[in-house]
Input
Amino acid sequence: MNRDDFLLLNTGVIYFDNAATTLKPKCVVDSLNDYYLKYSSNIHRGMYDIAKTVDLLYERVRFVVKEFVHCSSAKEVIFTSGTTASINLLVFGFMKYYLKPGDEVLLSKAEHASNILPWLVLAKEIGFIIKYVPLNKEYKLDYESFLNSVSSNTKVVSLAAVTNVVGDKRDISRIGKYCRSHNILFHVDGAQSVPHEVINFNLDCIDFLSFSGHKMCGPTGVGCFIIREDLISMLQPVFYGGGMNDDFSSDSNLVLADPPNCYEAGTPPIAEVLGLGAAIDYLNDIGLDVISKYEEMLKKYLLEKLSSLSFVKIFNHSTDSGIVSFKVDGISSNDVSKCLNDFHICVRAGNHCSKLLKEDSLSSTVRVSLYFYNTILEIDYFISILEILPNIFKVVES
Ligand SMILES: Cc1ncc(COP(=O)(O)O)c(C=O)c1O
Output
């Protein structure tokens, strides 16, 4: 990996907001340009050469994704606009027809809004029950609490593999195996994990997986929903239109296109899908194992340095991802973030779209989220600014 691949890093910006979105390497932007400048045609429609080229490039990405997440077939890969769209497809295209009144769905209060709100809305309509697995004092989910939360009515478990506020890495493999052996469907929100470490859809007994391209060096506006092959026939489209049907007539007869095309109505985000392919090729070239080891080293260093600042309260000392959430005594998280911005350091402040954590007394933190292009030097600089922060605010107030 070459930091020069990321033009923004040459501007002096220290980018520590990778959980929100990552930077894009030049090869990803080049792939978008190539599409728009060299073969900008629609897919699955044209018989001419450039249209056929784009068809092949687009469908190649499905195979690239299949290999990347280790599912069984490219048919299981549905392109969406991102994790949010994927979970909405799961909830309103599958669960709407699967869940019955009194069934239980297990979530946690550390989930992102995208993995809570669709469930809340459908639960109101259908009358299934949402249960939240209790979190420990570092807002992590222990396997034991998961087990204690399961009942004979549990039909679905939907959890992030890594949470976005405290970076809790769940034991996906163990939970997946438990669910598979107890006839419980298991959805993994992979938004914060797929970009950072290997996920094995088949081995981990995952039934549904959602993730976003823009959090893994890819473009915005594209993501994936992976569904276990034998469940595909139970998934109803939520969007109808061109590209998703083989035929229809005025008497309401509709013949759907074969999966996965029937779930990709309208012109899909073609450039973005190609960009996602370029991003995955880029990550594969570096190696997800190399990425996760390097991030582990960076995170340990960051935690060690942050812990030495007496006025900093860290909420997730035992984080097992590159996400660290903290507060600075006497200074609001927004002010910390604004002040760091004056030194060209980008961090996020607030609730990070996980507003149920407020109910467990965690609100408005400063979040640093690392990626493989961050460095020890950047962390040192960040710590040196944090060290003077209380003085800056004293001066401002006096
Ligand atoms: C854990 C998690 N799930 C879902 C999402 C939503 O992703 P998107 O906005 O790309 O749809 C995010 C975004 O931050 C996230 O961190």
